[in-house]
Amino acid sequence: MLKLFVKMIATGVITEEPPDEATSAALGAELKRGLNRYFRGSIAIRHVDAGSCNACELEIHALSNPFYNVERYGVHFVASPRHADVLLVTGPVSRHMEAALRRTWEAMPHPKWVIASGDCACDGGEFGASYASCGAVDNIIPVDLRIPGCPPAPTDLLSGLLQLMQTPYVEE
Amino acid sequence: MADTEIQSFVNACATANIPVGEPDSYVLPPAVVIPVSAPFWQRAARVAQGCGLRWCSFWASPVDESYELFCVLEKSGDYLVLRTRTGKEEPLPSQAPIYPAADRLERHAHDLLGIEFVDAPDSRRWTRHQAWKEHEFPLRPDFIESLSQRGKTAADADYPFVRARGRGVVEIPVGPVHAGTIEPGHFRFQAVGETVLNLEERLGYVHKGIEKLAVGREPDSLVRLAGRVSGDSTVSHSWAACQALERATAFEVPPRALCLRAIMAERERVANHLGDIGAICNDVGFAFGQYQLTRLKETFVRTSHTIFGHRFMMDRVVPGGVSCDIDSAQITSMVQEAKGLTREAAEIVSMLEHSESLEDRLMTTGRLTPEQADQLGVVGYVGRASGRGVDVRHDRPYAPYDRLKFAVPVYRAGDVAARAKIRADEIGTSLDLLCQLLQSVPEGPVKESFPDVKIACEGLGIVEGWRGEILTYVQLDKDGTVTRFFPRDPSWLLWPALELLVQDNIVPDFPVCNKSVNASYSGHDL
Ligand code: SF4
Fold it and tell me: Percent of chain B having pLDDT more than 70?
């Protein structure tokens, strides 16, 4: 146990002063302001992989590592779409995931936002539309924001979230 | 023919009165191809099993009005391809009664190509949900893709799951959308109280039609696609596809490119192992391990970004070589990083090993016995944690692994702890390999232009990805475009193991069992 504490103390808080973190720290700070304005300090994200190659998921995971520690901005990943403000979708929409994606979106309460994350989600990417794929997410549900990249890096995801905060919400 | 395992198989076939053709070691090196006539397909598998051969893969390729079918087997690094032909409506005797691993790949071949199997233990659909009809087969050349006016795709609601009856048996359906940030798939548990009686997987949700998308592509574009079969294995999948292309055309890859490919492949292995051991810690609520290991992973992928221009090194392995180069300063910094990480990872792993709460949750959890592992033909770290030391880098070394020294760790406990331990050991091995590679980077070009193809040809790529053996088949037409691409991700062989190892565990331990296997959905669903 002692060793654990020694290691923790030796590691320190890497989140505050990461060596080459200037950009993501700046993005993060702005993100916090954005969230305060629209969401009173908290935003709940439900992620759905609608057919990705899984590299997009690796970068979403990375948002929770101690470098980005996205929770400190009040950004939470939630298990149920009923608790979510934002649906974060990765991958082209495979036809086998089409119904599940629709249902997840329908289960979310209003107001709700959809982020298409990664080239596949934005425009179909490498897979496009085919007998097995519907291509871009907005072929299935309305998309509010696109974050391109293959896959988008964690800093891209953070800046994407920020952009979303600045997009005015339009009542359907 | 030097390969002794193959000679004994041929002899055993003769004894069993199974007519086989002349072994051919030129068409699909390093494998030896043995033609078998279709009616003997299953009996040949029985003989192979008697010889102790491991079942690796099965795929089919439409040729005119018939099919060409391939089955890959292996023992002690000797690869053998059984090859046969059937007419369009002519059924093939299933190999699944002998090798259970054949089951899902045969069902996949049925769903995409319409091959009928006789004597198959399970004839339910597998990859097909509701995106196409029962009598339609997307990989057949006459399949018509209509993108317009197809309407909404229904959910696959009526898949005939195995049912359990009895007092106190509850059924728990989970997925395809799971609680966390993971890929989609459906799990159907039957449990009594907290204990799992049975788990049935239903996959295919992220089927994107990769095999069909590959058809008609040029080599460069094929390899881009291969790098997205399973994004976490992008380096190894693109390497396997390149290897298949390069073997098909007898192309000599510059030694510096091979060295760089191996450096990237080992970096991919280390990054994934770090992240996954961290995730295993997280699944049992041990935050210290997760934070420390994801911290190391992030630092490591940032270096990959700085040096190779992409955090996961996507699209860096290309036909003919690699699309990046390193200088001596970068070599020095990577060696230093590897040495530092070796120390730090070992320090953290030793702390994890001394944590009683972790031990309590991981030991004896999710046990796959060596006998079960043998029966399923499991590869990679899941196999190595259950007594099966299969590692292509070691058993059938491809350049540059033929000049490197390393040991393959093997345990027999087969539980979550053993799988985590194997991966921790492999971090050490890979970092050592990285140092060996970095200290002997050959001079010369990093890429030669890939030749124009003039005749139809085919090749087999066999690479040890971080998850295990990747086996990729590529067939090119005489104009150099792809006519068939089949990447067999190790996940095909790992998913069935998860069903077995979770039995008799408690339902809440499923996430950690699943994470310790970490099979790819995308790599499997294609
Ligand atoms: S955008 Fe790239 S990384 Fe993301 S799912 Fe598509 S291919 Fe994979």
Answer: 100
Query: What is the per-residue pLDDT for A36?
Result: 62
Q: Is residue B309 part of a domain?
A: yes
Q: Establish if B201 belongs to a structural domain.
A: no
Type of residue numbered A134: C
Q: Give the CATH number of domain A24-165.
A: 3.40.50.12280
Mean pLDDT of chain B: 92
Residue B405 is part of which domain span? 217-515
Which pLDDT tens digit goes with each residue over A155-165?
A: 888 888 777 76
Q: Is the pTM of this model over 0.90?
A: yes
Residues in a beta bridge with B33: B24, B81
Q: Are A55 and B176 a contacting pair at CB < 8 A?
A: no
Separation CA B271–CA B450 (nearest Å): 30
In this model, does residue A22 exceed pLDDT 60?
A: no
CB environment B158-182: b (16+ within 10 A), e (fewer) = eeeeeebeeeeeeeeeebbbbeebb
Nearest Cα to Cα of residue B299 among A37, A139, A130, A11: A11
Within B284-405, where are the H helices? Answer: 287-308, 328-353, 356-362, 370-376, 380-384, 392-395
pLDDT of the residue at A116: 93
Question: Does the CB atom of residue A117 touch ligand 1 within 6 A?
Answer: no
**Residue ending a domain, choose from B60, B84, B118:** B118
* B422: its two tokens: 């194997």
Instruction: Give yes or no: residues B343 and B229 share one domain.
Output: yes
Q: What is the ipTM metric for this complex?
A: 0.91
Report residue B76: phi and psi, to 5°.
50, 35
Q: State the closest ligand 1 atom to the C-alpha of A151, by its place in the atom list counted from 1.
A: 3
Residues of A in contact with B523 (CB under 8 A): 54
Confidence check: pLDDT of B210 > 90 = yes
Q: Which of B85, B118, B151 is the last residue of a domain?
A: B118
Predicted confidence at residue B430, as pLDDT, reads 95
Does some domain include residue B186? no
pLDDT average, residue stretch B468-493: 95
Is there an atom of ligand 1 within 6 Å of A135 CB?
A: no
Q: How far is the C-alpha of B18 from the C-alpha of B101, rounded, in Å?
A: 23
CATH label of the domain that carries residue B442: 1.10.645.10
Chain A residues inside the 8 Å CB shell of B226: none
Q: In this structure, what CATH number is given to the domain that contains residue B72?
A: 3.30.460.80
DSSP per-residue letters across B79-123: EEEEEEEEETT--EE-STTT-TTHHHHHHHHHHHH---EES-S--
Q: Which residue, chain included where needed, has tokens 């040029």? A: B218
- Cis preceding-peptide flag for B93 (omega within 30 of 0): no
Does residue A122 carry a pLDDT above 90? yes
Q: Is B208 in the pocket of ligand 1 (CB under 6 A)?
A: no
Instruction: Provide the residue ranges of all domains of chain A, joining segments of one domain with +.
Output: 24-165
Pairing of strands B195-202, B117-118: unpaired
Q: For residue B305, which phi and psi values (nearest 5 degrees)?
A: -65, -45
Environment class of B364 (CB within 10 Å of its CB; exposed 0-12, middle 13-18, buried 19+): middle
Report CA-CA distances (Å) from B61 to B69, B93, B94, B474. Answer: 6, 17, 17, 10
What percentage of chain B exceeds 90 in pLDDT? 74
